[in-house]
Structure formats: structure tokens, C-alpha cells
UniProtKB/TrEMBL annotation:
InterPro entries: DNA-bd_dom_put_sf. This is Helix-turn-helix domain-containing protein. It comes from the Bacteria. It comes from Pandoraea cepalis.
Length: 125
């Protein structure tokens, strides 16, 4: 059996549905080189394995000593980013600026807060 380049590959619309992302997000990832694709008759086609790898990489926490507010609340397990803001206002987290002047949180502080949260949850259980 001869396979074509489109065999098993999906369009951007299908890729967006499979990953739970928007079509624009999938297209941007393709244009920026983060998501491999082939063009068949002017249409981008994505391999499901590439989509799964891309999605896993997007959900992986970033490395390095500083975290964005969004990465911090995901790491801690809070419901939303406003919980991070309240932790900052209460003095449990300290904001530092990265090399581009963006507000960030120290990973060590966030991990310590996450451990405290896990301990409180374990104590209640």
C-alpha cells in the first residue's frame, strides 16, 4: 500500500480540536517552527504524534529560577492567577523582575508554598 503525505495527518482545524487549542494558536506554533507540518495542496497537515509532543511541551513547567505568575499558580495547583496575587499581597511570595523587566516569582518560594499547600491538604485528609 502506498501512503501519501496526508495519511494519518490532520488539518489545522482538526489539530485545534484534538489539542483543545484555537486554530490561531496551532497556526502560530506552525509558523514559529514549534509544531512540524507538511503542506499538501496549500493546506498544512499535522501528524498526531507531533501534536501530542507539542501539547506535552506546552504543559511542561519552564526551567530556571524564575516563574511567571501563571506558571506559579499552575505549579502550586491554585484555581486561578488571582490566588497568586493574594499570596503576594499577603507577603507569602515576593515579586522580582527578570532581565526584561517583567514581574516574576522565585521558583524556590513557589515550590515552598506548594509544599505547604500539599501538607495542609494531607493533614485535612
Amino acid at each position: 500500500m502506498i501512503t501519501t503525505p496526508t495519511a494519518g495527518r490532520v488539518t489545522a482545524t482538526q489539530a485545534a480540536a484534538l489539542t483543545g487549542r484555537g486554530i490561531a494558536t496551532v497556526s502560530l506554533a506552525a509558523r514559529s517552527g514549534d509544531l512540524p507540518f507538511v503542506v499538501v495542496n496549500g493546506v498544512r497537515r499535522f501528524a498526531p504524534a507531533d501534536l501530542h509532543a507539542w501539547q506535552a511541551a506546552k504543559h511542561a513547567p519552564p526551567t530556571g529560577p524564575l516563574l511567571s505568575f501563571s506558571d506559579a499558580w499552575r505549579l502550586i495547583g491554585y484555581a486561578n492567577r488571582s490566588s497568586i496575587t493574594r499570596a503576594i499581597e499577603a507577603g507569602r511570595l515576593t515579586v522580582v523582575l527578570d532581565e526584561h523587566g517583567r514581574p516574576r516569582l522565585n521558583r524556590a518560594d513557589v515550590e515552598a508554598l506548594a509544599e505547604q499547600r500539599r501538607a495542609r491538604k494531607a493533614k485535612r485528609a
